[in-house]
Design a protein that fits this description.
Blueprint (H helix, E strand, L loop, with lengths): L20 E3 L2 H10 L4 E3 L18 E5 L10 H11 L5 E2 L8 H14 E7 L18 H8 L3 E5 L4 H6 L5 E3 L5 H12 L4 H14 L2 H11 L6 H14 L6
Parallel strand pairs: 1-2, 3-4, 3-5, 5-6, 6-7
């Protein structure tokens, strides 16, 4: 994670190791450029949009809790009970289970995104723990994987340049980190606007701006490397998805 400016590896300052370096947010570019001897570019965090394997028909969970939450939102049983008091017909899914290994754990998370309409996620600026940066905000896969799956994201989006790119306004629901009752009112209101067209709008945006293959394309351009045929096929599929066409 390039936001840890205090942990920039010394190898970045040694000539001959890297032709070019990349950070995941514009705010990280200057600190890395001051330490590195190679040019430093910016490539935001992303997701594998083409392989998300989601459909509108899968969207059966109204609200999904994903990852760490502020104290007021951390008790899943309490959040579920409060949601039922607000609107008894809505469904809530707690955090996905851990798997036997990292791959299975991540697959559980992807399956959860695939079934969710709204994902609950808060920036470390409003809820910091021992493993988050105490000062700098940053985007993680919680946001990009949710957008790739066509979800809206409720909570507090990190205030970063990368977040402006990978989390579109049409997918944001800003809710208070310390008032679940008011936040659920806002989420319920947004769910009323979460139609198949909104889902497709988010998916199209993800295909155009979030997929990792765009980052690989940028690297090829920066390094004057010809794009492999496999990458070109992926980019063509993404272009079709972004324009609302089938890429099957």
């Amino acid at each position: 994670m390039t936001f840890w400016h205090e942990r920039i590896p010394r190898v970045a300052s040694i000539r001959g190791w890297f032709t070019r370096l990349y950070v995941t947010d514009a705010a990280d570019q200057k600190p890395w450029s001051e330490r590195a001897v190679s040019p430093v570019g910016v490539l935001p965090w992303g997701s594998d949009v083409l392989n998300a394997r989601v459909s509108w028909e899968q969207k059966t969970v109204d609200l999904l809790r994903m990852g760490r939450q502020p104290d007021s939102w951390d008790d899943d049983d309490q959040t579920y009970a409060l949601l039922k008091r607000h609107e008894s017909s809505l469904s809530f899914a707690p955090r996905p289970p851990f798997g036997r290994d990292d791959h299975e754990t991540y697959q559980f998370a992807l399956d959860a995104y695939g079934s969710a309409k709204v994902v609950l996620a808060f920036s470390n600026a409003v809820h910091s723990v021992s493993y988050t940066h105490p000062e700098r905000e940053y985007v993680t896969g919680r946001w990009t994987d949710a957008i790739a799956a066509g979800c809206m994201v409720a909570g507090v989006v990190p205030d970063t340049e990368s977040a402006k790119i990978v989390v579109p306004e049409c997918a944001r629901i800003c809710v208070p980190p310390d008032d679940p009752s008011a936040g659920l009112d806002q989420i319920i209101g947004a769910l009323g606007e979460y139609t198949k067209e909104r889902y497709l709008q988010i998916r199209r945006y993800a295909a155009e701006y979030v997929d990792w293959h765009h980052r690989l394309h940028a690297m090829c351009t920066d390094l004057s490397i010809s794009r492999p045929e496999s990458l070109q096929r992926k980019l063509t599929d993404l272009d079709q998805l972004a324009r609302g066409e089938s890429c099957a």
